[in-house]
Amino acid sequence: MSKILSIILFGLILLSCKGQSERIENDLYKCLINSLSEGEKIKLTQIFDDYEKHLIEKGILKSSDSKDYYYLYKRIADSEVYDFANEFNFSEKISFLNRKSPEESEVIIGCHRKIFESKKYRESNLYKFTVEIKLQSNHMVTPVVIAKTTIKYMTEEDFELEYNRFNTLMFIENFK
């Protein structure tokens, strides 16, 4: 179940759309938030803040500013080099999000399913991004490939959304 949640959360990083007036990632973020209890929301926010501060201290992120989230991907895409080594175990700290049974996961899974089946999604840059990543999945999808694809579809402003910032933290965690 932990792997499934990690895959879902990491997959959500792929859900950003440049230049959309109605943002699909806002809908997806609501799915995540609405699946949590009030206590879980508070705990998740604190873990998010702690991890972000840790990554800034380690020099992985320059600051908590949205442009620095974008430039993390840009640096990786341009240099083809990344080093996410850090001792903060983000996956373990958010493991409380893992639901013990499929029924408990149905809220978020059902919510995502509706979005992915929508016309809004099929007309989004997210859909184009997803198709591109799927085409590349026949080859090895590395952090560099993800970074290049991310900057193709996202702007600095996209990282003003907590949703995209959270998914960047998952990206770092998955490739450290």
UniProtKB/TrEMBL annotation:
Q: Which PROSITE patterns match?
A: PROKAR_LIPOPROTEIN (PS51257)
Protein name listed in UniProt: Lipoprotein
- Species of origin reads Flagellimonas taeanensis
